Each structure stands twice: as structure tokens, then as C-alpha cells.
């Protein structure tokens, strides 16, 4: 949504903005295969709105109370169960889960009034979180088969919080709070609480665990009074370092524990999302703003989700495909503080990507109108009324015969080659290949007054299609082709106003079918695949044409009329994107449309002719006014 004049310092991965304009959003969880992302958003009303993002669509989740704040905190591996907490009013919340989008209240302890769910096991069987007891004391709890149970207190602990659970639900991690309000990282296994220690300081918290339960992540105070993220494996707590600042927090981990994500401060104290892999912390950057944070990673370690600031200062949820690069380096200062830096890369904004896709749909509608116009010109070719400026476009077959004294019959046919025809909004269409086709028709006329005409045409064109590039998006390029065919039956009646001027009324029926072959973009990190697209219509039309001979060799015709679709079919503009899944934009049809045209014909020696056409009409798919200009060279045989 925001254009950026200069690119900020780039980063080793690609951030994808999945936010909505005017909203502050944050992704808080992702399913095992990355197909479902969950999070919260807020707009002008200061409250959290839960959502999930699946198959390219944002779905708002239901709440316990209308217009009340609701948070989502986790999602099962297959994406079918989402957990969180929903406000019931008076500042209290209940733990909830959405099972296939159906909201279920998980309730509270019998002695408490509120609860919250923080995480869910991979199979969705175990949910962990916190609940209040008497006197407002908070304790770690778990729900198994929707039944709530309190986890054992750690030694010396006064309160406890459960933050994450292993894939099979057997190990739970969180934090224990002492009466002195010091926090300690703790894990619960087989109903036993175990402290994890620190990085040399006094406090630590545990916020995540790998699916296999072997690696625990969080943050701890160091012996230098800094707060660093850590990875706890086999009884050892490893310092993950920072991005040049004094703070980091590990918040998400892949199933095998090899990829860790979170947030860390850079040297200028802003927080940036990071990816930690192979002993190196990689700065994921932002969406053009100052700060970002990675909240979770898919179990397969391929998809990172979180939030980042845009250039306008808004917080948007992002998706970041993980990508291990050899461009990073690790620096260890003399004081043993670990920092990381990275090389330049590219960032992709999904919000702007979807804007470019909407523009692509408009461009497609314009190009279909362009193809229709070229085919209509072919269907109108072959007329014998050269006195008023009509022409034959390279006719290969042409003959007259009559069995009645009052009727003339004409048979005509030919081929056409259109190298260039420009339409509004088809800026993405590189017409490096000619639009070729053929036409065939039959006409009966009576004493230059009335005529009946039937014609058929077919054409095709290979094209190179380029997606419009907005800030933080890619310029996708792909090869496709258009195919058009149509038939037209038309009746006309001429009235001569004077020797070189005539007015002509027309009415007719046209059948048109245009299709574009599906294609996939090349040479981009996130290629878009576009499905096949087809449009067809049976259209009636009526109009009036003024024809005049303005010079001995030059004729002009001006036409105005209206057309009405009696039957039509149009496909949705749809496709899919790597990582984000499918997208669909519905096309709205306009069945009744005005049209107008101006045609100039200039006769050259030896049966040659130059023809220029200007057409203005309303596009059938988006209703916009369309301007098409076309120049052609005609030769009569």
C-alpha cells in the first residue's frame, strides 16, 4: 500500500505482508505445513479481532461476546483446531478453541473466574495455558479431552504459567514465579516440574518447545544483565546472541529444533525479527518500517510468521519463507557477546502483491475487450459499400451472384494480421507476436437500401504477460495465449441524406467466445499461477451510423449504439501462489453497455486501403470505459 522511494537496508529473507489496509495485524501461529496462519488485527476500534488466513483468504473467527476482544495463540498441525482466549466482559477472559471454525468455551477452574489457552499439541489433543484460582493466583493448567487440570507447582513457586507443549503433549514448558517475583524457566514432564537454569543471571522464561520435545526456547538474563534468547537441549542452555543490541527473545521453533525465530535488537535499539539456523542469527528486516518480530514457525521449518512495520508505521502480519543463505557472518566481540549481520536481499509485500493481482484482473478485462474489438473488425470486413468507407481486409474469397432482380448476394472471406493494438489498462501485455485470424461471411442486399449479413471469425495470439510491480513486490513474467471466435448476424438499412452522406441503422446478434490459457510466472521467488480464463456471451446490438465521403479518397463513419447480453458466462479470475495458496477475484458483469466508434478509411492505388478505428465502449467485466485504437492496412484482390 505504501510506495517507498528508496529501499531500506535489505535482509536475508523475504517478508510477505498479509495485513489489510488501515489495520494493525499480527500473525501468532502457523499450522505444520504453513497452510493456515492465525493471528489478531485491530482497526479504529481498540480491540483485538481474531482471524485465520487460509487458501489466500482472511477469515474472521467468532467470539464469545460480540464486539469483545479475542486473541488467538496457537493452531494444531493440520490447522483444524485453533486456541486462544475471548473476553466475557469486566476484564475477564475464558480459554477457547475453534474446532473447524466452531467456537468452544473451555471454561475455568471451579475456584476461579478466568482462563486463557496459550498452545496446543500437534494432534490437538492437549491444550495448555493458565487459569485463576482463589485470591486471583494464576496457575499453569492443561486441557485434555476438554477437561481442565492444574499442573504441579515448581519448588518455591507461588504462581506458574504454561506457554508451550510438545507435539505429543507429554512435555509442557513455561514459567514459575517466586514470592519475590523472580521468574524461572520450567518444564513439566510426567507430572514433575524441573527448572532449566539461566544464562548466568537471575531470571529466565520458557516460551516454546520443539515438536519432539528435545529443544526448549525462551530468554534469560545473562551475567552482564542483558536478556538473550536461548535454546535448551540435553540439559544445556545455549546463548543465541543478538543482532547487535542487548536483547533477544526466541519465540518459535521448528519440529526438529534446527530453526528458531524471534526478535532481537539491532545496534540502534530497534527490534527486528530473526531466524536462527546453523549457529547464525539472521535479521529478517521489516516491511519498510523500523521494527518487526517473528512469532512462530511451521513445524517443517519453512514458513515464519509474525508482524512488521510498514513505511507508514502500521503493523502488518507477515509470512516469511525460511531460506538459508551463505551471505551471513557471525561476530563474537571480545566480551563474548554474540551478534550477527546479513547481506542484501529482497522483500515481498503480499498486500501490494494482491493489489497488483487486482490490477491484473482489470488489465485482463481490458485485453479481452481488445481481442473482442479486433474480432469485431474482422466480422465487419468484406462489406461492398466502399462508397461510404467500408473495406475488405485481405479477402481471399469474394463473389457476387443473384437469382432475383431485386437482390444481390455476396460471399466473402479472408485473413487478417494485427501487429499492434493498444487498449487502456493492458500495460502488462507485450504483443511481440501478431494477432492472426480469418473471417468468412455472406451478405444479401437490396438496391443499396437494406442488407442482411452473416459472418464468422477466428483469431489467436501468443503473448508475454507481466504483473505490475509495486513496492516490495516482484515483477512476475509468463507466456500465454488468447483465442477468440465469434459469429454475427446483422441487418442494416441505408438512407441517403445527400450524394456523399448517408445514415444507416443496424440491428444484430453476436456470439463471442474468448479464452486465455493459464500460465505460471517465471524467474520469481514467489511465482503466481493463473488458471485458464474464458468469457463468452450472446449479445444483441442496435445502433445508428453516419457515413460521409470527406475527400475523394477518404471516407468517415461515426457509430453510436447499445448492446445487451442475453446470455453470458465468465470465469472467476483465480490462481494460486506458492506458500499463500489460492486466490479468487470474482468478475462482475455489465450486461447492457453503450458503444461508439469512429472509422477513417483512406483509399490507395491498386485496391489498397489504410483504416484507422477508434472505439469507446463499456467493458463487460468491470464496467470501466474502454478506449481502443487500431490501425490496419487492407489490400483487395
UniProtKB/TrEMBL annotation:
Coiled coil: none annotated. It comes from the Bacteria. InterPro entries: Autotransporte_beta_dom_sf, HAF_rpt. This is Autotransporter domain-containing protein. It comes from Candidatus Chlamydia sanziniae.
Amino acid at each position: 500500500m505504501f510506495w517507498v522511494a528508496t529501499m531500506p537496508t535489505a535482509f536475508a529473507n523475504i517478508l510477505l505482508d498479509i495485513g489489510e489496509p488501515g489495520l494493525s495485524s499480527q500473525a501468532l501461529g502457523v499450522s505444520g505445513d504453513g497452510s493456515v496462519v492465525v493471528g489478531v488485527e485491530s482497526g479504529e476500534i481498540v480491540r483485538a479481532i481474531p482471524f485465520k488466513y487460509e487458501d489466500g483468504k482472511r477469515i474472521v473467527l467468532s467470539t464469545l461476546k460480540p464486539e469483545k476482544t479475542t486473541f488467538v495463540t496457537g493452531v494444531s498441525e493440520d490447522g483444524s483446531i485453533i486456541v486462544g482466549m475471548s473476553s466475557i466482559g469486566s476484564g475477564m477472559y475464558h480459554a477457547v478453541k475453534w474446532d473447524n471454525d466452531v467456537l468452544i468455551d473451555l471454561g475455568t477452574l471451579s475456584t476461579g473466574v478466568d482462563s486463557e489457552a496459550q498452545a496446543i499439541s500437534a494432534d490437538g489433543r492437549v491444550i495448555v495455558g493458565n487459569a485463576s484460582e482463589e485470591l486471583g493466583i494464576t496457575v499453569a493448567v492443561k486441557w485434555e479431552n476438554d477437561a481442565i487440570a492444574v499442573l504441579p507447582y515448581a519448588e518455591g513457586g507461588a504462581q506458574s504459567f504454561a506457554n508451550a507443549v510438545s507435539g505429543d503433549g507429554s512435555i509442557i514448558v513455561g514459567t514459575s514465579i517466586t514470592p519475590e517475583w523472580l521468574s524461572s524457566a520450567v518444564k513439566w514432564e510426567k507430572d514433575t516440574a524441573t527448572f532449566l537454569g539461566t544464562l548466568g543471571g537471575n531470571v529466565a522464561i520458557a516460551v516454546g518447545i520443539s515438536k519432539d520435545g528435545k529443544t526448549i526456547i525462551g530468554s534469560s538474563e545473562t551475567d552482564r544483565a542483558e536478556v538473550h534468547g536461548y535454546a535448551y537441549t540435553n540439559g544445556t542452555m545455549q546463548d543465541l546472541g543478538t543482532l547487535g543490541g542487548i536483547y533477544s527473545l526466541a519465540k518459535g521453533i521448528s519440529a526438529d529444533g534446527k530453526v528458531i525465530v524471534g526478535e532481537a535488537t539491532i545496534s540502534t535499539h530497534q527490534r527486528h525479527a530473526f531466524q536462527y539456523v546453523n549457529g547464525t542469527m539472521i535479521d529478517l528486516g521489516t516491511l519498510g518500517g523500523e521494527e518487526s518480530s517473528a512469532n512462530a514457525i511451521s513445524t517443517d521449518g519453512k514458513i515464519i510468521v509474525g508482524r512488521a512495520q510498514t513505511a507508514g508505521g502500521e503493523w502488518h502480519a507477515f509470512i516469511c519463507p525460511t531460506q538459508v543463505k551463505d551471505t551471513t557472518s557471525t561476530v563474537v566481540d571480545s566480551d563474548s557477546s554474540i551478534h550477527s549481520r546479513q547481506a542484501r536481499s529482497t522483500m515481498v509485500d503480499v498486500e501490494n502483491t494482491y493489489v497488483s493481482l487486482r490490477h491484473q484482473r482489470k488489465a485482463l478485462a481490458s485485453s479481452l475487450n481488445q481481442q473482442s474489438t479486433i474480432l469485431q473488425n474482422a466480422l465487419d470486413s468484406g462489406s461492398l459499400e466502399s462508397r461510404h468507407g467500408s473495406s475488405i481486409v485481405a479477402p481471399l474469397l469474394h463473389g457476387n451472384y443473384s437469382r432475383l432482380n431485386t437482390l444481390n448476394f455476396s460471399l466473402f472471406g479472408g485473413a487478417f494480421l494485427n501487429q499492434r493494438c493498444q487498449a487502456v489498462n493492458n500495460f502488462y501485455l507485450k504483443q511481440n507476436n501478431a494477432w492472426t485470424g480469418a473471417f468468412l461471411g455472406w451478405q444479401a442486399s437490396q438496391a443499396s437500401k437494406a442488407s442482411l449479413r452473416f459472418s464468422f471469425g477466428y483469431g489467436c495470439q501468443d503473448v508475454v504477460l507481466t504483473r505490475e510491480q509495486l513496492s516490495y513486490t516482484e515483477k512476475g513474467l509468463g507466456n500465454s495465449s488468447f483465442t477468440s471466435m465469434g459469429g454475427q448476424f446483422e441487418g442494416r438499412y441505408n438512407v441517403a441524406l445527400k450524394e456523399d452522406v448517408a445514415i444507416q441503422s443496424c440491428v444484430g446478434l453476436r456470439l463471442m467466445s474468448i479464452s486465455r490459457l493459464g500460465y505460471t510466472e517465471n524467474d520469481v521467488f514467489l511465482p503466481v499461477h493463473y488458471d485458464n480464463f474464458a468469457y463468452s456471451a450472446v449479445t444483441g446490438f442496435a445502433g445508428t451510423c453516419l457515413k460521409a465521403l470527406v475527400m475523394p479518397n477518404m471516407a468517415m463513419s461515426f457509430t453510436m449504439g447499445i448492446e445487451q447480453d442475453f446470455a453470458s458466462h465468465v470465469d472467476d479470475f483465480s490462481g494460486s501462489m506458492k506458500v499463500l495458496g489460492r486466490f479468487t477475484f470474482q468478475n462482475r458483469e455489465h450486461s447492457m453497455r453503450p458503444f461508439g466508434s469512429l472509422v477513417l478509411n483512406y483509399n490507395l492505388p491498386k485496391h489498397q486501403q489504410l483504416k484507422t478505428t477508434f472505439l469507446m465502449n463499456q467493458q463487460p467485466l468491470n464496467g470501466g470505459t474502454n478506449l481502443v485504437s487500431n490501425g490496419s492496412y487492407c489490400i483487395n484482390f
